[in-house]
Amino acid sequence: MGKNKQKFTAPVLKNKDYTGTIEDLTHEGLGVVKIDNFPIFVEGALPQEEVTFKVVKIGKKFAFGKLLEVITKSPDRVEIIDKVYAQTGTMPLQHLSYDAQLRFKKDHVVRVFERIAKLPEVPIADVIGMEDPYGYRNKAQIPVRKINGKMETGFFRKNSHDLIPLEDFAIQDPKIDEAVVIVRDILKRYHIKPYDEVSHKGDIRHILIRRGYYTGELMVVLVTRTSDLPRENEIISSIKDKLPELVSLIQNINPEKTNVILGSDHKVLFGEDGYHDTLLGDTYFISHESFYQINPVQTQQLYQTAIDYAELTGKETVIDAYCGIGTLTLGLAKKAKHVYGLEIVNTAIKNANRNVQVNDVSNVSFKVGAAEDLMVEWTDRNEKVDVLVVDPPRKGLAKAFVDAVLTMKPEKMVYVSCNPATLARDLKLLHEGGYDVVKAQPVDMFPQTHHVETVVLLSLVK
């Protein structure tokens, strides 16, 4: 018989109050305080602050605490706009000054380069921030529910599906906030029933609104449980009347019991399925299902950095993997011989081909399919690529994609990342496979949150 493992006992007790000094922040911005070397994560607390907190959850390696009082304040602490943004998790860093947010995000990138990528020597620039770090989101997906017998819009309380009524989201385009309320009140006037998750009844699940930052064009998507929209014609007429910038009104039908917002079917109620916005001098058509960067001001900074890193001379063949509707592809095409965009979402490629025509671009081709599969096909044909640009989802690059890169060996690679941890994982593999990681530029696409995008230049070691 083996020896009995000693039962773990944390040095703190649940529901008991403690006082301590915050030593650090987690990558999600939670304050870290230690008792007998055991870390407790406290939301809303900042480094150097002495705080009182209640332990609310205990695990084997760490615990969570609820902030009760800040005894000694950090010089980086600012007054919050409203506690509701902490309750919903939409602005988890609103208590941290914006300059400190940018330092925190750079520090996170530096840490993953050191700890995960094992590349502590890579130069990492200061984060490119915003002049005004509010009102930047060009898209809203707002749940609609009944509260106290009345239709309400707002956001779910963190880790729940309890709706907190909210009309001013602070980080969304104010015009979008206004449009949500206008559409909600029109639906209310025509007695449209809000969706009930428990009974799976009701008509309207979400109001989705997208707005062109530079064009002002407005798209409204009504996500309904069934294809039947009561008093449809009156609703269409009222929304058109109240929102003169409206160019697209879509009904998306989602009959499933699911947390996924959009269903697979839709119908156009007014205009067409799309609106326009401009980026780096080009005009883009964006359908309701297509990905388009949330922060239009910072997207210009992000993409211009990627284009600058590519150092194109007009002679290069370029692959833009995970190209979406072609926003970065067309920017690269202005300075390349030819750009091939790879994208798995068919509707995005349809938008991309339309965007090529709208902007009269002749040196771009798009291919539909999984980026890793298309890359393997490319390497099998031994076709030369000079520059590879990747902008993958949060999960980063598939192992098959990395293997294809190491077989293809493009001289230069530009990696645009929305997740520092998977970025660092991939950089480690690429470095071990023969690439020098030259430099990195973080960009703050999501002020008041812990998220950060990073552009990285890699060069093939010869």
Automatic annotation (TrEMBL):
SUPFAM superfamilies in the record: Nucleic acid-binding proteins, S-adenosyl-L-methionine-dependent methyltransferases
Pfam family, one: TRAM
Keywords: Methyltransferase, S-adenosyl-L-methionine, Transferase
GO terms, biological process: rRNA base methylation
Active site: C418 (nucleophile), C418
Domain TRAM: from-to ranges: 11-69
GO molecular function, one term: rRNA (uridine-C5-)-methyltransferase activity
Family: Belongs to the class I-like SAM-binding methyltransferase superfamily. RNA M5U methyltransferase family.
Family annotation (PANTHER family): RNA M5U METHYLTRANSFERASE, TRNA (URACIL(54)-C(5))-METHYLTRANSFERASE
NCBIfam families (UniProt xref): rumA
Name of the protein: 23S rRNA m(5)U-1939 methyltransferase
